[in-house]
Fold this sequence. Notes:
By secondary structure, the protein is α/β, with parallel strands linked by helices. Among the domains are: 191-237 and 316-378 and 391-421, no CATH class; 240-310. It has helices at 14-25, 40-49, 69-79, 96-115, 141-152, 156-173, 211-215, 220-229, 240-267, 271-275, 283-310, 317-330, 356-376, and strands at residues 5-9, 29-34, 55-60, 83-86, 122-126, 180-184, 188-190, 196-199, 208-210, 236-237, 347-348, 402-409, 418-425. The protein has a nine-stranded mixed β-sheet, sandwiched between helices. The chain is elongated and about 105 Å long. Residues 354-358 and 364-430 have low confidence and may be disordered.
Amino acid sequence: MAAHRVLLLGGNGKVARLLTPMLLQRSWEVASIIRSPDQVAELQQIGAQTNHKGKLDVLVRSIEDVKSEAQAKTLIDEVKPDYVVWSAGAAGKGAPERTEAIDRDAACHFIRASVATPSITKFILISFNSCRYEKMSWVTEEHWQEYLKTTRNPLNRYYEAKIVADKVLWEEGKKRKDFAAVSLRPGILTMEPVGGVALGKYPRVAGTTSRPSLAFRPGYPRYAALLGSHPTFHNFRRFGRVRMRLLLIAQDRVAALEQQLDQIDEQEDRQLFLGCMRRDKNVERQQVLSDLKAALAEYDDMLEKCRTVVSLPASRGRDVQNLRKWVDGTACLDRQESSYLEHENDLINPVKSLEKSTAYTESFVEECIFWLETLMHKSLLSCHSCYGSAFGPDDYFDEDTKFIGAYSGNYAVRRGISHDPIVLHPSEGI
């Protein structure tokens, strides 16, 4: 894979801090833009702690002071990136003018300047899940009004700034066929472990999204992060059948050598050799004993390991079901390589099981949640693309635009429920 140079705007943000080492590990070059010289040493330390062949440049610049497309173009020309990631923002904090200057005006300037730069082929905007002019057709009016009341209205100035940037990204992205404009619209960001993502039209807007889920790339990086986020996801094959098969082979090898030793002893014509090991000159017997020692050690080792594995508790059906739904929903793993989850009777969890009362309560609550989710929307985990609107009526987007609603977060109730709406244009993704 060719190395890319990424302009990371807002490099000191939590999402950017998670993303930076991942890009460096891919041997990419990262130009991280921050506003304070006090942040330089800490960011450089993040780069130094990463085992990589990439290059990290930390530049101190004030994005808030970018007042025109020309000024944005000056920074782009200085860095010379081919990808741009917008992770900057006032997040509604400080004076209203600051939110408008950064989240709206500066973002729009960098979007336009990036589209006007032929060498830049991708712009990723970390946006806001409320960036819509109108209710989506698949969301109920009751839920939409509740969401406006509890989430968007309190952040209305932030919304007004982000919606403008999203629309500019959509409009500018259509100007070039070789340009991928990506609006990543998570819910309220948390530092919870990465969770599952399911694709499709999701009937709710509110939710939380872990910052790590925005950083780990689809595939094994994201799947491994999910497994590491909670012990209930630590489900692996016991391989009971093949383990017994290999144990039987090892046992038979010891038995065959034992039989061979008995035959040698029976045919021995010198009683002295049988009565004194120090004077035993039978080379064949010595070789069999040596082979027997190695075979028996291997057998004992396999037997002990088998005892450990066999005694591990079986995976709970609900935990396996959660993983299977995540894999089916994200489609980020090869089907053949994720098929191990289909061997439910052969799956184990090496982590100490939960107390019975806790496990029962958790299972009951999860069952209620899944029942309600199924009742509300049968296609929760369907993996498909659909044409829809991010800003208004369903026909607002043209046919080159794809909307993907993503349900993100661990399915278990202890991690909560969230989702990540994502807008891609053209159909190329991150």
